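Re: the request from the purification team.
They wanted to know what the chain is likely to look like in 3D before they choose a buffer screen. I agreed to run a prediction and write the result into the notebook, where they can find it.
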Amino acid sequence: MTEKGKKENAEEICNRFVNDEETDADRNLLLSWLHAYRASERVDLREEELNGAFEISRSKIMTDIKKVNRYRVKRLWIAAAAAVLIVSSFFYLYIGQDGDFNDRSLTLVEELDKAVLSLENGESIALNNLDTGLVTENELYSIYLDNDGFLEYRYKEGELGVESVISWHEIKTPAKEQLKVKLVDGTEVWLNASSTLRYPSRFEKDRREVFLEGEAYFKVTKDAGEFIVETDPQIVQVLGTEFNVEAYKSSSVAKTSLITGKVNVRGTKNKDSAISLDPGYQFITKENGGSTVQKIKSIEYTSGWRNGDIYILDESLYDALKKIERAYGVKIDVGNRKLERRVSGVFSKNQSLETVLKTLEKISELKFNVKGESVLIENN
């Protein structure tokens, strides 16, 4: 689509808002523009105007559109959208340019219909709809679901043989499901959909290590020795901090994003030396093994997935569709189409898959057809 075409498309959407004819897809698209514009450090629009439009659009339009005073919100939307249209380079941010992304087809996420905890004795426990309280126990530890929704490990001090026994547990979350785990040292882990966390029932002295495939947010307990998160493309070493690790095998990049504290992180393919990250920065590993450090564009986009919403900020359309796959538990078949185009946006967990795909249709020149648990793509 040409720059002129992009502008005309945006003007048509604004006109629909003026005439009370806007659709849910229009609202999503306009919201994604505001998110992308706010995170892009392009501040031609006055901060108080942008922030006011952003907050109202997020809290009212995205999550509870039917209860909004449409006249007040509409005026803010139109003012913000009109200002955004003036910035010609803005469209480059959300549409983007073709990059060096390889052609590929999306693969089906692992077929699981429930989150599962696998114990050392071979027992598997379904974690859906558990009641608060004791989940399971043995002579060494107890596992509870606490009042905050965490699956919590409690180590039994002084039991016979406890010092010599370390057993490994594994949690797998399916698409559409997230889980919170509180490890035996008190470290809190938020596990995203289609992810696997492998960890010991207790840690060795002065060393704590877990293995991750997928995405998780960690809030590590301090003063209990080093804490290591190992993924296929990255190894993260911390002493006590909050950070997000995204390392899906199906994604084009792996990211470690530091929120607070300090971490050392290195890529595994090129055996580079570890890099020390400061808060507000992320370490990114690419498929070819190359790595880079960059400033986090938006903390909200980095860790906001914990509330169930979908956050996309200047990502390839391929990676955006992978997030949608995991969030809705569907397979998106793109064939041999190129998906280098960059997109930005945020979608409420309460919105239907059809509404989300309608929004992407407006910026991708593709058409999505939902057939049960599959999504087919056609040229628009």
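For the purification team: The chain has eight helices and 23 strands.
Please add any questions underneath this entry.
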